[in-house]
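Lab notebook: predicted structure, single chain.

Context: the supervisor wants predicted structures on file for every construct in the current expression panel, including those that have not yet been purified. This is the next one on the list. No modifications to the sequence; it matches the entry in the shared construct table.
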Amino acid sequence: MKRTLLIWASMACMTVHSVMAQDAAVNKIIEIGQTDNQVMDHLDVLTNRIGGRVIGSNAYDNAVEWVASKFTEWGLEVELQEAGTLPVGFNRGPWFGKLLGENGTELHFVTPSYTAGTKGVQRGHVLQEPLTQSEFDRMKGQLKGAWVLINGKNVGWPVDRSAKGDSIRAAIISENNETAKKNRQIMEDNWRNNTDNPLLPLKEDVPALFYKQMCEAGVLGFIQSATVPLRALYDKAIIHDPTFTFDNLPDVCDIKLDEHQYAAIKQMVKERRTFFLEFDIRNHFRMGPVKYYNVIGKIKGCKYPDEYVMASGHLDAFDVATGGVDCGSGVTPVMEAARMIMKSGAKPKRTMLFCAFAGEEFGLLGSTAWVKANKDKLDKISNLFNRDGGPTPPVGLNVPKAMYQDFVKICAPVKKIHPDYPFEVKEAGPFTKPAKPAGTDASVFAVEAVPASAINEKEIKGYNFNYGEIWHTERDTYSKSIPEYQEHAATVMAIVTLGVANLEHLLSREGLYK
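Prediction complete. Output recorded below exactly as produced.
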C-alpha cells in the first residue's frame, strides 16, 4: 500500500512540476513577445535585404539559406527538403520605361515573372494590334522595332503562348475576317445608298491575336492595360513544362502598363502622333535545372517524438514587390514563434515542425511535396497552423466540439497579452473536406483529412488594411505589414502551438470533417 501511494505521489509531483514548467514557458513567451519581439526584424531581412523570392531565383535560394541559418542559430534541428525542380530559373533586375515625345513621361509598368526582358535599352514606335488578316497585312512592314498595344485588361498573367491559346486566337481571327467582309459590304451599301448603317464590331477580348506572326515580324514587345495597383504573376508554360530549356525561352517583352497611361498612349496612336517608347527591363533567366527547397525547423518532442504540431507560412513571394505581406507576414511570425519557444526553455512533449514552404505561388508545390514525402506522419499530426492571410491579428479559433475544451485551456493565456485584443474559441463544424487543394498550403493537408484549424484574424484598431489591394501586386512591401499585429501574431502562434504540443493526447479528429 505504501509503495502504491509513493508511486502515486511521485507521479503527481511530476505532473505538477510539468504543469509548472509549461506555465513558466508560456509566461516567458509572453515576456519575450512584449520586450524582445523580433518578428519585424525577420521581415526586414526577408523583404528589404533579400527581396522578392520566386522559386528558381537567387533571392529564393538566399532566403532558404538565411531561414535555415536562423533556425540553426536558435537551436532547432533543420531539414532542407528538396521540393521540386524547375527547367530554368529567373532573376529580376531593375526596370525603366519612358514615353519620348511631345508629352514625355516616366512609365509605370511591370512584367510577369519568367518572361523576357529587353536587350538593353530599346526604343521604338507604337502600333495598335491588328484584329483581321487584312489589317495585319497592311501594317506588317511597320512591326519590326515596334511596341504593340494589345487589347484586354490584364490581371497579372502573360500572353498565353500555348497551343490552346493559338487555337483560340485563330478562331477569333477567322471570325473577325468574316465580320470584316460584312463590314466592307455595309460600307459599299452606305456609299451607294447614301445611308449610315453602323459597322459590326470586331472581337477584341482575346489579346495579341497575331502573336506569333508579330514576334516573327520583329516587334520589341507587347503592352497591355493593367489596373492599378499593378499585378504581375508568372508564365505557367515555362514553370510547368519540363521541355523548356535555356535555349528555347521567349525573347519578346510582355509589359503590363498603368491603365491610365495605356489609355493616353492608345489615343496618341489613334491620332497618329509622332512619339516613341523606351524600355530597359532586366529580366534574366538562369540555366536549369534549378532545385527549390522547403525549410523545416524541428523541436523534437520529449515524450511523443513521433507525434507532430506544425506551424507554416510560405517562403516564396512574387518578385515584382518584396513579399512583405504575401507571405512575409505569415512566415516571419512562424519563425519568431520558434525562436520564442526555444528561448523560453520549453520542452514540448510532441515534436514541433516550423515550416517555410516553397512554391506556394506556383501551385502549392512545397506543401504538396512535403505531404507526398511524409504520408506516414499524417495520422500523427495534431494540427497544422498555417498563416497566409495578411498581417491582421489573431482573434480566435473555430474548432469542432471534440477539440473545444483543449483549445479553451490552451488559449487562456492569450488573453493576458493585450486586454484590448479579443480572442475567443468557438465550437464549429464539421467542415467540408476539400476534394482538391486550393488557396493556401493548409488545403493540401485538409485534403488528407489532417486537422488544419486556422487561427481567425480580424482588423481591430482601424489601420484600414486591405489584403486585396496588396495581394500579388507591386505594393506588397515591408511597409504594408503592421508591427503590433505581427508581434501579437507571433506570440499567439508560439503559445497555441506549444499548448497543442504539450497535450497528453493528439487533438481529436471527431466531427472535424464531413
